[in-house]
Amino acid sequence: MPESWWGNAIFSLIPTIMLGLIFWMVLRMIIRGDRTARREYDRIEAEERAKAGLPPKGERPLAAADAAAEGDAQPQVASTPPADAPPRA
């Protein structure tokens, strides 16, 4: 053990700094690995969608896009009874 004040300060801070660096490196590797895995998954999914003849992810199919553009699409209406209707038995 160091006998001087500065030696004690450095001797006590080095383990904390080292553990912090190890923690940072582990988290960095986990986040980078996740990012790489997601990128690869998206690439593989795009290839499979292209093989199946599907549009790229995030695009609507042409038939639905055309119907919505022309106004032919029927709006989805929830079937709720009026407020003054008696409760169903």
TrEMBL record:
<feature type="region of interest" description="Disordered">
    <location>
        <begin position="47"/>
        <end position="89"/>
    </location>
</feature>
<protein>
    <submittedName>
        <fullName>Uncharacterized protein</fullName>
    </submittedName>
</protein>
<keyword id="KW-0812">Transmembrane</keyword>
<feature type="compositionally biased region" description="Low complexity">
    <location>
        <begin position="63"/>
        <end position="73"/>
    </location>
</feature>
<keyword id="KW-0472">Membrane</keyword>
<keyword id="KW-1133">Transmembrane helix</keyword>
<feature type="transmembrane region" description="Helical">
    <location>
        <begin position="6"/>
        <end position="31"/>
    </location>
</feature>
